[in-house]
Specification:
about 0% helix; about 260 residues; 14-stranded parallel β-sheet; about 35% strand; single chain
Length: about 260
């Protein structure tokens, strides 16, 4: 237990309980960490071994972990977070400026702003209630839920469940999307692979899909919709200004988007 500032701390063996109430400038651990608690800012934290419980209530400027992380909780700002191993539970209630994960992420929850989030591995559960400015994932995403604004979201792997209640300005997916639901305006959405279920209850300004679309439902205005793949069910109750699927290479099984005028095809 340390109640004063820590400038350089290095450990090569297991750490069972570590508590610091002062500033931590450099912390490096190459062994297992069973419990780590910090109530003040952490400037540099590096762990190469397993981390079982990590809790920080102050700002975290640099955090790097190359081993599995079982429980991580932060209530302050996080400026740089990098993990190359598995992350089982991650919770942040403050701003997150840069988050990068190369391994599997099983549970990630953030209630504050997220400025940069990048994941190269699988993401099983991700929940965010604050704005997300940049989110990039190259691995499958099984459950993703966001209640705040999403400005840029890019995924190259399959997405099984995605739900957003706030504005989505840019969303790009090159992998399969099985369920996507949005209740806020969507300004740009692009997908190059099949979409099985897509539901939007507010305006869609730009939607482009080059893969199969099995179910698409929108209750708000749609200003531009372009699809080059098969579309089996499409329903829209709002205005549609540009819709190119009928003259494209896709097949429409059932649609009633022209019931509400005006529209342009």
């Amino acid at each position: 237990t340390v109640t004063d500032h820590i400038y350089n701390y290095t450990s090569t063996g297991p750490i069972y309980t570590y508590t610091a109430t002062g500033h931590i400038y450099t912390y490096t651990a190459t062994g297992h960490i069973y419990k780590y608690t910090a109530t003040n800012p952490t400037y540099n934290y590096t762990a190469i071994g397993h981390i079982y419980t990590y809790t920080a209530t102050g700002p975290i400027y640099t955090y790097t972990a190359t081993g599995p992380i079982y429980t991580y909780t932060a209530t302050g700002h996080i400026y740089t977070y990098t993990a190359t191993g598995h992350i089982y539970t991650y919770t942040a209630t403050g701003h997150i400026y840069t988050y990068t994960a190369i391994g599997h992420i099983y549970t990630y929850t953030a209630t504050g702003h997220i400025y940069n989030y990048t994941a190269l591995g699988h993401i099983y559960t991700y929940t965010a209630t604050g704005p997300i400015y940049t989110y990039t994932a190259t691995g499958p995403i099984y459950t993703y839920t966001a209640i705040g604004h999403i400005y840029t979201y890019t995924a190259t792997g399959p997405i099984y469940t995605y739900t957003a209640i706030g504005h989505i300005y840019t969303y790009t997916a090159t992998g399969h999307i099985y369920t996507y639901t949005a209740t806020g305006p969507i300004y740009t959405y692009t997908s190059t692979v099949p979409i099985y279920t897509y539901t939007a209850t507010v305006p869609n300004y730009t939607y482009t899909a080059t893969g199969h679309i099995y179910t698409y439902t929108a209750t708000g205005p749609i200003y531009k919709h372009t699809a080059t793949g098969h579309i089996y069910n499409y329903t829209a109750t709002g205005h549609i200004y540009n819709y190119a699927s009928l003259v494209a290479t896709g097949l429409i099984g059932s649609t009633n988007e022209w019931e509400t005028l005006p529209h342009s095809i």
